[in-house]
Amino acid sequence: MPDVIAIRGARENNLQDVDLDVPKRRLTVFTGVSGSGKSSIAFDTIAAESQRLLNETHSAFVQNFLPQSAQPDADSLTGLTASIVVDQEPMGGNARSTVGTVTDAYAMLRRLWARLGTPSLGTPTAFSFNDPRGWCPACEGVGSVAAIDEDALVRPHLSLNEGAIDFPNYQAGGWYWKIFVMSGFFDPDAKVGTYTPEQRRILLHGPDGKAPKIDVGGASFTYEGLISKLRRSYLAKNPEQLQGHVRTAVERISTRGACPDCGGARLSAAALGSLVAGRSIAECTSMQVSELARWVRGLDAPEYRPLLDDIADRLDALVRIGLGYLSLSRESTTLSGGESQRVKMVRHLGSALTDVTYVFDEPSTGLHPHDVHRMNELLRALADKGNTVLVVEHKPEVIEIADHVVDVGPGAGAAGGRVVYEGDVEGLLASGTVTGEHMARHQPLKTEPRTPTGSLRVEHATLHNLHDVTVEIPTGVLVAVTGVAGSGKSSLVRGVLPRQHPDAVVVDQATTRGSRRSNPATYTGMADHVRKAFAKANGVKPALFSANSEGACPACNGLGIIYTDLGTLEPMKSPCETCGGRRFTEEVLGLTLRGRSIADVLEMSVADAREFFTERAEKPIAAILSALDAVGIGYLTLGQPLSTLSGGERQRLKLAIELGSPADLYVLDEPTSGLHMADVDRLIALLDRFVDAGSTVVVIEHNLDVVSRADHVLDMGPGAGSEGGTVVFSGPPAALVDADTSLTGRALAVRHG
Ligand code: ADP
Ligand code: ADP
Ligand code: ZN
Ligand code: ZN
Q1: CA 654 to CA 141: how far, in whole Å?
Q2: Which protein residues are within 6 Å of ligand 1, measured from CB?
Q3: Residue 85's beta-bridge partner residues?
Q4: 610 and 565 in one domain?
Q5: From which domain of life does this come (predicted)?
């Protein structure tokens, strides 16, 4: 039997009877334009079937609790091994999950402290902040405690009688308000802002000494300051147990502050007092990983060499993958998608498993060309350990290292779904496919940048690692902000810029609200126009054609899918049997426009819909469709739930809405993620359209095609974390090529020779 994963007749999503042999224990890259079907092969067919088969090995009882997935649509799939999907989903978990705990580096450090720390505390659990034996009792290892934001709670320009206390039951006439008014400490008609410091203290924290009793309507109550009262009644409780409106109010007035006992270190005083070479374990977890690795290597303890080497190797893996700027104490929930994926990768590298199929989703996301090469080494290392590594990628730097390339296309959606090339990288270059051609040809360097219309000043920025950055950002042009991961790009343009210039519109990849019910048609407002067109053609009211109305299928409430709640697990999905997934009642489905039902229209791709909505009265629909096509998502169907879109697709959908009436200033974070080289060309043309319409467009980008076509480049660095945080270059791309202190300049020079 040949050593391959053999796929025959695959038809998931847009796949057109794909036959494919993927070599095992090799590195295979899947590429092709966005929407061509790469994920449909790698994730929805190979990984999905492998996971389904694994689930089947559980007992029937356990299977009841697992998400039931249908068998992927294919004639046969053989040669599968157990698969692990390493994607960009933010790492689940809570405040207790840190870079150290998820990579196991922290568990290794605890073993080191258990053996070498003085005074000795014996067991590793004494250093665990997830165990009562190690945690700081004040914060139970979370490092922060809930506090009340006085400014959100008390409105100084109002008196008690006017409702100065902004909290349910404390407003004028409320039960607790009475206690404050009857206390005699305050004039209920005086603005709270005019209170003496003493009165303010009594209002918030109560008087010194024994709490006085207050008589309200014949009953006696203990007077307590507002903050201590709210803290005791609400903050100490599990928010889940509070009534909805109270919970909302509590969330509004509460903030989290560092724990006063441990200062955020999470550990007991005993754990913090145990030192190795003069340092506590908490000092070490707050260092940058790159510095910690050096420190561990320098420790003089020959008898513990194997443990020290293990720790240093794990830390080095983080450094090599471009994450040396993180600290082990960083909460995993604050990591970006790309960072999360790389942290997960490090965890797998440490695993003893072999002959596993790893499937990566664009692992180069967020990485500077300089770091991509180091990440490539880790992908190779996984394959060399005897694993099958499948990577969905677009960057030529990653495609280049593949043992085997699968190029999917030629187009997107129905125009794709076939394997257009399969073989080694050399063959790809000669194949004549869109990918092959782009591999050989880059966007030229812009030599005549636009003249700015003015500039925006960012002053004294110090967020995260920024070193008091003051910089002028030219307006009316396309600005690329570059630099290695962790150099401070996001801190500057996503953190500080919108604070100093609140009119900035940040177009990100975040999930949109209500994404199960929303789709491109509803999200863009096109659905309203489509309903009107159907209503007019049939002489009925437009609301009938809304999946939220009486026209919707009553069994699935217009979702087309039935979701069964499984408690903590992902809900189970099954197609609605009443409407067959078509979302509407039979009656509504019988009302047509030029022979098509509303369900037919929702199943059209944007491109097909452009050919259907050509009547004069349908101009608003055509305009939105053309914007969707212009941003490169013409292959999506109008009714595809937003929850199934990738981050990059969501970002382009948001951009399409902006095209109608462009704002002054846009900030985009890596808009090329998920885009094939051919799509990148279209994206650049789109950004140019915004700039030509008068907008300033600031993009965080690693993609050298975009950097080459920018009018102005701001390069952050020189390194990551504490070694970054300054602007190392500001000027046109043609000048950046000569800036040899800049890593971006060097990468650009290599490409443009
Ligand atoms: P790629 O990974 O190459 O960007 P995909 O495999 O994600 O492409 O998508 C291929 C086609 O299948 C696209 O037209 C896409 O819109 C469609 N598609 C993908 N996932 C779904 C889904 N869950 N429901 C409906 N259509 C989907
Ligand atoms: P880039 O966008 O260039 O990758 P960032 O601005 O995200 O860089 O990060 C710059 C520095 O700030 C890094 O050292 C990073 O660890 C730190 N940082 C970023 N976000 C946070 C956060 N939410 N909490 C703590 N530190 C952060
Ligand atoms: Zn604490
Ligand atoms: Zn239904």
Answers
A1: 40
A2: 13-14, 32, 34-40, 408, 412-413, 635-636, 640, 644
A3: 359
A4: yes
A5: Bacteria
